[in-house]
């Protein structure tokens, strides 16, 4: 696992101690939802302000995750209130200190009446341990906030007044509010024919109910500027069956080209997240059935300044809710588009409301990324231009196209042939004639002599073609004429448009003279460009540079991706095989900005990434830091290691000893001496486990070695192992038990998964 610039954190201790400067009041309302607090400030603030005998305080709950803050609040504010209502997203798991403090002050005689409600749409029975009221009453209070809206806030206020009068009945019923719906199109252009594509934005109903729509409106406007028709859909949760059915109904009539969702957590593939296809017995998630890219567009619960100063980009809690859980649905991660900023103060409530504020640059990035995915979807295959990027680490010609567990050259050839069948233009450049001059090569004075490049037949042939041109190996590239590249003038014009901090970093870390013409390593086959990813830097310690979390890429690195974006005008890039170096460039861990180098290099190009299935940790870096769509591929085929030479001889001696031990004890004694003599001269005898019986120790060691799984080749993308390799691979996968499934041997023996063989 490689490193990126970051620091450790967790959901509790990461919370810095924030002083809670609030005086006691009759009524306390503590919630994790800023939208809810803002609504209550408007509704309850006016209502209770008229009642001079009752005072109200509103409080954002998140600072109370810190144990010292929770203790201070309980001792100085909570214990002096008449009624305290908590709405805690995450329940006891997120707020153990605060909830334990409730029990503590109650045990010391505090008279405060406590009402603890779930912060989501799901009932949390654990919270009843901290309530002073019966479950039916708690559920009734919960219903007001579950339904939401101004009217239900008024009804909740009536219920609070009844509670303060020590009444536990006669509460008004919560009004049923639609949990989802479509925004009305204010522009009047909804029914016009879309020029580029159709996009949906899904967001939380609470934003619509409280009018906290600045981010949604800014995102809609940015997408409109890209020529996209936008429909807004609000929902309490996308896990609701009815909300899913409405989206599927709409998709049948007006299928979207992309969906942007601002909603956190995962939908999953359970009863509310998927359906069973009767024919294939395969579970499809709700998002898969929509059949388009689903792009996660998170907002932060913190302010913009916190994001700017955090090398992780997001706090751990924001990352968990808005990145880690949503990506289990297969959503494509973009970047953060809005932050919670403090708005108007309410002095009588000792509360300052927070609303979402859009970030124009971040929104522009997401809108352009979305438009590029729509462009990719709507462009005919014959017109699509795709850049396939091969890793090259270490930077030698002998390591072109290296990928963990993957025969990358052979995989690329198989992939090219499949593209050819699907109508992609591969064999020649459309609309050109032999002898024509390309834009990039005009800068170097070279001409295109052969535009009729055919698809190589083998991976070896592809590598020879690439090695014949410019590569990262300076010694092997000496004297070769580049086929494409970028002029120094254009490169530094692009660098000059970067943020000042990024320009300063490049200028400080790379002081060498950049050539007048920067070559781009790779070969073009019609509308497909196969490029060699440039090296992270130069010098003697290239391996250290490759994984350096602080060193920016040299200008020549940026030139490579600039050529792909501007000259080749790619519709998409494919980084083929684990793993390249783009996702490890310096910058935030997640929720990147325009000063982070993965975004500087790739910009808003759709990025696909065939990646070995058994390393999700490193694949996640590409998802989170370069908006990659990870396409998992199988590991190499596995087989049993078996035994050889002295190991094989030792096993045969043990087998003979087992046969002779009863019938021919004298021969068994001779065999013991032979085994002892063999072990005296075998280097691996030191690895034998400790055992009172040396023969038993040898048997266990040989069995473990023999049954060990080893690779029997490399995987070719999109192809299953054949023949004995397939049988061995399946046996290797099935022989080991998993959580609830027995291994093959346990199953044959009729034993449980935990049976020790």
Automatic annotation (TrEMBL):
Residues 143-751 form the CobN/magnesium chelatase domain. It holds the Pfam family CobN-Mg_chel. InterPro entries: CobN/Mg_chltase. PANTHER family: AEROBIC COBALTOCHELATASE SUBUNIT COBN, MAGNESIUM-CHELATASE SUBUNIT CHLH, CHLOROPLASTIC. This is CobN/magnesium chelatase domain-containing protein.
